[in-house]
Amino acid sequence: MEMLKQLWTKIRSVLAKFLPSYTFEIGAKELEKRITPLFPIKKKKLIFVFKITDPKVVLPPNRDNRVGIAVSMKVSIPGLLAARGRAVIHGEIDYWAEEGEFYFFDPEIDELEIGGLPGRYQEEVRGLFESIIRSAVSDLCIYKFDPADRKQVIAKRMLKSIKVEDEKLKIQVGL
């Protein structure tokens, strides 16, 4: 068995010299096309009604495999108050090789600004908003290799790295 492992290691190193790696670059606009159909999100939690709209993908530099989604939001207590704000949610990118899909998961709220909301509601609204976001965008497929593209079919099994660089999601494949 050990001999087979050594042989496989040698074969891979030889192939790696002849088969170059390839990098797919995906911009924010292309990723937005995948998530926009999920919005608006409208949920009622306790006495609050949330409406989350206008998703914009944020590809921050130096965040490795983390992607952000900036959203507009409205929170109201019907008949009593209405407040508007913005939030930025960051999540990790996970790759499922069998499907050739990249998922947004483990979302965390990095920024949340709501104007016109009394202070006594701030923490409760933040917690409820986080709950809504976690259920709405956890395990969200943000990109899938195209089964009709031969390069992408091969790439599906040969992922080397995922990183955010130069405002693009870069997916490097190869041996």
Structural overview:
The chain is 29% helix and 47% strand. With 175 residues, the chain is an alpha+beta fold. Strand 4 and strand 5 form a beta hairpin. The model has no long low-confidence stretch (mean pLDDT 85).
Summarize the structure.
With 175 residues, the protein is α+β, with helices and mostly antiparallel strands. 29% of the residues lie in helices and 47% in strands.
Notable features of this structure?
3-stranded antiparallel sheet; 4 helices; single chain; alpha+beta; 175 residues; Bactericidal permeability-increasing protein, domain 1
Number of helices: 4
Shape: elongated
Mean pLDDT: 85
The count of domains is 1
Structural class: alpha+beta
What is the CA-based Rg, rounded?
Answer: 21 Å
CATH H-level superfamily title: Uncharacterised protein PF07273 family, DUF1439
Give the topology, please.
Elements: H1 2-18, E1 22-27, H2 28-35, E2 41-45, E3 48-58, E4 66-77, E5 81-96, E6 101-115, H3 119-137, E7 140-144, H4 150-155, E8 159-165, E9 168-173
